[in-house]
Design goal:
Chain A is built from ten helices and twelve strands. By secondary structure, chain A is an alpha/beta fold. Chain A has a domain of 68 residues. Chain A has a six-stranded mixed β-sheet with strand order 6-7-8-3-9-10, with helices on both faces. In chain A, α4 crosses α5. Chain B is mostly helical. In chain B, 78% of the residues lie in helices and 1% in strands. Chain B contains 14 helices and two strands, in the order αααααββααααααααα. In chain B, α3 crosses α13, α4 crosses α5 and α12 packs across α13. The longest helix of chain B has 35 residues. The two termini of chain B are 21 Å apart. The chains are: A alpha/beta, B mainly alpha.
């Protein structure tokens, strides 16, 4: 049981954003997709979500082509980076939209409250979306996703930079809930930029560079100083977390010569 | 919530009954109700009611309801509370078509109505075609296509009016100010049918429309077929506004103001905004039309002029008061 990209190539104009990419997301695992800006991470996630269509290759959900999956929205949820909602909609109504694929039922209000409780946003239930801070909005978005996943059919969760420009507490809540879904047998894939955070959170890392998968495996195998230097062009030291043994990445101090090299 | 709906529907019925009684021949609302129930009343009253007032009030209700609903749909479509059905070219199309019919063919009321509807639907179709790229309708492109089509249509109207003689000019000008004085039973049936069916279709879509407010991707991830929703919305707006413009001319501001009022009172969920805008649009146009035909009696003010005259400042006042909540 898995969600896979098989030999996927996708072009925008002349540029191959993804070339012959294979990614497998098994149920029950948490995978972080990492790589520099423009490596194709969000594009790969978009293809897995079904919102982008590759020029060649296949997207397969539990043995079936993704496009032929009935009730796809009941099987997988996607947390995108931004939402454009500009109407003063009550938070409860925003979260309830997660029930849309399931049809309305009498216990929707209970599910909405449970989802808000899970992300520590019970107090936002009656507030208006337009009056929330960035962190509060992300909590509410995650609550909507949890509401959508509140079904025995739910199998996969895809998160596009769920921690971008958010504080530690919000990041911990969102990724914690994602882990919780993974531990109950769901497959979770998150695009992450913070390498230490990705290493701490994920069971497995997939490193994308210029549209290709260049490394894949346990965090300590993927995040070596050599590879970080090759892919990001930055010298970094890798330590081990004293408690978990997971890699911690510290970039070298920004010396004058490396600084001028980047700005020249 | 239930009491709000009950109050709105009761207010609408009360206003309809009162509006049917107000005019040169005054009829007590109780008599109106009595006559509507099929009981015998004064024959003069009966004649006035059935041939003049009732069709007119119903026409106002359907046209106003259609405009309110279309306003709510357009604002949802563009994810912008300042959008108006005119943005997709529906009024400009009707105006151009009526200008052609009046100036070049000296058309009568029926031909004018048919051409207004045809023009509205045809121009919206054109905007849709231009606004579609790679089979997808993009909101930004759709908006710009609407702006361009509006400008072209209005320039063409200007050219036609420059050619027009005084009678055609006067006829066209009054059409742009809107009037419900031409209400007939067949017209009422037509608008009622189109607006009724559009409403039924639109009210089913409240969930997908709410999801579309989150953005195209987020809606698609919730299983909403965004393109299909968008095309349905444009189609429903073209039909409802087109048929309204055809029978009542241009009536401004209902489509823009009414959804706002509903949102300020009941929140922005389409579950309430769509039926609320339908009811409130009907209510406001009936009041406006009753004022239009009685304020300067025996003369009649153009109702479209009145809705804009009062709608504009009222809208401004609302914006000032609630700008924090918008």
């Amino acid at each position: 049981m898995s969600l896979c990209l098989e030999d996927v190539t996708l072009r925008l104009g002349d540029r191959a954003v993804l070339s012959e990419v294979d990614i497998t997301l098994e149920r029950g695992e948490c995978v972080a997709l990492i790589g520099p800006n423009g490596a194709g991470k969000s594009t790969a996630l978009g293809v897995m979500a079904g919102s982008l269509h590759p020029r060649s290759g296949r997207v397969v959900l539990d043995g079936r082509p993704l496009v032929a999956t009935p009730h796809l929205a009941r099987r997988r949820a996607v947390l995108t980076q931004q939402s454009v909602l500009s109407f003063p909609m009550p938070v409860a109504d925003v979260v309830r939209l997660g029930r849309l694929p399931h049809g309305s039922s009498a216990d929707d209000a209970t599910r909405v409250r449970a989802a808000l409780r899970a992300v520590g946003a019970t107090h936002l239930h009656d507030r208006l979306w337009t009056q929330l801070s960035g962190g509060e909005r992300q909590r509410v978005r995650m609550a909507r996703i949890l509401c959508q996943l509140d079904s025995p059919d739910a199998a996969y969760l895809l998160l596009d930079e769920p921690t971008a420009s958010l504080d530690l507490a919000v990041a911990a809540t969102v990724l914690g809930q994602a882990t919780h879904f993974g531990r109950r047998g769901g497959g979770v894939l998150a695009v992450l930029h913070d390498l230490s955070l990705a290493a701490a959170w994920a069971d497995r890392l997939i490193l994308l560079h210029e549209g290709c998968v260049v490394a894949e495996g346990a965090p300590a195998e993927v995040l070596t100083p050599e590879r970080i230097s090759t892919v990001y062009g930055v010298r970094a030291r890798v330590f081990n977390h004293p408690d978990t043994g997971r890699p911690l990445i510290a970039p070298q101090p920004f010396e004058d010569d490396s600084w001028s090299r980047h700005t020249a | 919530m239930k009491t709000t709906w009950l109050a709105t529907v009761s207010a609408l019925l009360l206003v309809m009954a009162s509006a049917a009684g107000i005019g040169a021949v005054h009829i007590h609302p109780a008599d109106v109700l009595w006559a509507l129930l099929g009981q015998p009343v004064d024959p003069l009253h009966e004649a006035v009611l059935w041939t003049l007032r009732v069709p007119r009030v119903l026409l106002a209700a359907f046209v106003g309801g259609g405009l309110g609903l279309s306003g709510a749909l357009t604002q949802g479509l563009f994810r912008n509370p300042l959008a108006d059905p005119g943005l997709i070219g529906v009024s400009a199309g009707a105006a151009l078509s009526v200008a052609i019919a009046t100036v070049l063919f000296d058309a009568g009321p029926t031909a004018k109505a048919v051409s207004a509807f045809a023009g509205a639907v045809a121009v919206v179709g054109g905007v849709l075609k231009v606004g579609k790229m790679d089979g997808e309708m993009r909101i930004g492109v759709l908006l710009l296509a609407g702006v361009a089509v509006n400008a072209i249509a209005m320039a063409a109207v200007g050219l036609l009016l420059w050619l027009a003689d005084d009678a055609a000019l006067r006829s066209y000008t009054f059409w742009t100010m809107g009037s419900l004085s031409g209400a007939t039973w067949p017209g009422v049936g037509l608008v009622g049918g189109v607006v009724g069916l559009s409403s039924i279709a639109a009210l089913q879509m409240h969930g997908p429309l709410d999801a579309c407010l989150l953005g195209d991707d987020a809606a698609a991830h919730l299983g909403v077929r965004v393109q299909r929703v968008r095309q349905s919305v444009v189609g429903l707006v073209a039909l409802s506004v087109g048929v309204g413009v055809a029978l009542a001319g241009m009536i401004g501001f209902i489509g823009l103001v009414v959804p706002h009022l509903v949102r300020l009172g009941l929140g922005p969920s389409h579950r309430v905004v769509l039926p609320g805008s339908l009811l409130l649009g009907a209510l406001l146009l009936i009041i406006a039309d009753t004022t239009a035909r009685t304020a300067a009696a025996p003369a009649e003010l153009p109702v479209g002029l009145l809705t804009t005259l009062f709608g504009g400042p009222f809208f401004f006042a609302l914006l000032r008061r609630y700008r924090g909540a918008l």
